[in-house]
Structure prediction request, 215 residues.
Amino acid sequence: MCPIVRKIVENVPDEVLKKDLERYRKMAMELGATDAKIITNDDIIIDDRTRMKCMYPKCPYYGSNINCPPYAPDVDYFRKVVKLYHYAIFITKEAPPEHYVGPNVLKDKTQVIYERKINEIVSKIEAAAFYDGYYYAIGFAGGPCKLQFCPDIACSALEGAGHACRAAIKAHSSLEGIGADAYRMATRVGWVIYPCGAQSEGVPCARGLGMILIY
Ligand code: SF4
Prediction:
């Protein structure tokens, strides 16, 4: 049965908002997140250096799709937008380190299964919040959408007017691509996180991250 669509109200009462946020948090867990937290806009850390890391050393997906820099919303715009929200749901999914670290992860695409899962959870919470009347709900995941949804075909959204993203409801900009320092945000909520690169020794676990701005 489809959930009931709620009417939009100018100001959502506090008790309704709190119950909804907790429901979205639990929903993330039921959908497969390892953990999910309700955070405020003060917990969203934005740092221009994050986007710089997409450029140097240049990620092979830089400029390959509308959700990655330089096409994704820029850091200053994201900074302004975040201030208009009060609450977000921050989610994580742990993964065995070999899916995220090692010299061949980008080539072997071993993180894709986890990044797609994060996108799926984010999409479902985004939709639930939208139909509950939080019509500005918007989600972000991790990693390039092109790797996850269009690995062997050109990004349709970059083809200009009249062309949409072929995975519009499923694909999101990455947190890192718009300037969110998701690593520091993870440490702030108590999630243990390691740098994931070619070197794997000493990395006991990896994690994907996503966030939905709700209200
Ligand atoms: S069409 Fe594919 S590559 Fe382009 S934004 Fe959508 S999911 Fe990403």
Observations:
- The chain has a mean pLDDT of 94.
- The chain is about 35% helix and 10% strand.
- The CA atoms of residues 46 and 180 lie 4 Å apart.
